[in-house]
Amino acid sequence: MEQHGLTLRQRTKIAQKFPIQLEEKIVAFQKEVINLRKERNNEPSQIGNMDETPMTLDIPIDRTVNTKGDQTVLIKTTGHEKTHFTVVLTCMADGTKLKPVVIFKRRLPKNAKFAAGVIVRPQAKGWIDEDGVVNWISKVWDQRPGAALRKKSLLVWDSFRAHLTDKVKEKVKESARTSQVVIPGGLTSILQPLDVCINRPSRTGWSGCRQKTGKLKKSGHSDNCAVGKKDAWESIPTAMITKSFKKCCISNAMDGTEDYISDSENDTNTGSDDEEEMHCADHISEVEWKELFGNSSEDESDFDGF
What we know:
Strand content: 5-15%
Domain DDE-1: 83-216
GO cellular component, one term: nucleus
Largest sheet: 6 strands, mixed
Protein name: DDE-1 domain-containing protein
GO molecular function, one term: DNA binding
Helix content: 25-40%
Distance between the termini: 50 Å
Strand order of the largest sheet: 5-4-3-2-6-7
Number of helices: 9
Order of helices and strands: EHEEEEHEHEHHHHEHH
Structural class: alpha/beta
Region (Disordered): 259-281
Radius of gyration: 21 Å
């Protein structure tokens, strides 16, 4: 291996596989956005992006200090590395952050109260489905600033199948003068603002479920996770959001004076090789979900939270 310049390395990134005819699909997406903006004259405050992100309560480390030469290295965990939930984030091109939605697998206690500024919902599998998207449109998108005035809006999201059902399309049409643009499959890491600059620092800032020592807080305190995600979301700078939309060529000035921003270096993606970054696929089946997070019904049988 040394003769060929090879060495054992830890994985640093799971890269998204780009589709064939990459440039053509990017240009087609940008043309659709530009044409809609010219036709509807959308304000930056009415151009939004929504994305769902799967998360786990605990992410065990891959490295630890151990006696040299040991064949087996054990790392203690909280047992919740496969206890997952979903976070739905929405932001506007002017930097406005809408309420995050946190979806837990477990049933919520009756009369449960959660912190203001975050929406908490239960779902049988802890992820978002068609009904979850419809609920998001009613509780988040239709509550954005300017919606009551029925300002023309533009919603950009990926080709996740729950976004493209007839029920969701009808709900979007009923929404206050909203047009939608679907990001081509496999291009979210290039064309989705939340993926390009925002999701990673949002994950990094999430600490609501952890004590100062890094240990997971006691189960049963689902509000800790909701509040932690809300605080991490609110900590994202407005300038980062506006720049992310421009890097994706969604809200740039129509006269072309801001086109250079899309070609600039993405400062938010810098980091050490030991940091892991994961781009989620646009489509994820139930089988793929179980491969990533395990069978929740079995792994969480003794989990008392949420």
